[in-house]
Amino acid sequence: MIKRNLLVMGLAVLLSACGFQLRGTGTTELAIKELDVSARNAYGDTVTQLRQVLGNSGVKVYTGAPYKLVLNNEQETQRILSYAGAGRTGEYQLNTVLNYTILSQGNLELMADKLEVEKVFIHDGNNLVGSDQEAADARKDMRRDLVQRMMLRLQQISPTQLAQLQQTAEAKAKAEAAALEAAQKAEAETPRQSPLEIPQQ
Q1: Structural domain of residue 100, as residue ranges?
Q2: Are the CB atoms for 81 and 91 separated by under 8 Å?
Q3: Does any domain span residue 10?
């Protein structure tokens, strides 16, 4: 029994030395521990799944959290890749682009980017029900890919980077406020011309 335990421990050490990590043992650690997640479609499948995955990863998802992830726009396009006999469509390519923004307290923009996924599925003109199901499955896979990629993006943000993004956003907001104040002051100090009086004939 002792030998078996030592063997298991030895294997674990070797695997960790190679950079291998078991699923759920720190691979989903996020620098952002509290997050408000919103989307244009507040009850859409993508934002709903993302909230669930974040919650399972130990992130507290609630309205009013210090950081906010906004899914600004999710657009899907579809195009025909190839044709089958008798003019029936053979292959479709689905493409989904998700634009997102990460905000800090005070709604300062820390980051804005986009994710893109694509999927190809077969359309059979003789089996419309089966083709519709395949299209639905493709969209489901793409949604899962979007959520996974969003999680990867969030995991790549380190505490140091988060602090730098916050500092940059605050400096930008301060500079914009100073520029606005200067413009308003200059406008207030500019003498205004009196309206011309046209002599009556």
Answers
A1: 28-169
A2: yes
A3: no
- What domain count does the chain have? 1
Residue 132 reports pLDDT greater than 80: no
Q: Give the end-to-end CA distance of the chain in Å, rounded to a whole number.
A: 116
Q: Mean of the pLDDT values across residues 131-153?
A: 90
Q: What is the CATH number of the domain that holds 85?
A: 3.30.160.150
CA distances to 30, 32, 115 from 73, rounded to whole Å, are 24, 22, 11
Tokens found for residue 166: 């916050």
pTM: 0.70
Q: Maximum distance among all alpha carbons in the chain?
A: 116
Mean pLDDT of all residues in 166-177 = 87
Closest CA to 163 of 171, 175, 173: 171
In a domain, 188, yes or no: no
Assess whether pLDDT exceeds 90 at residue 99: yes
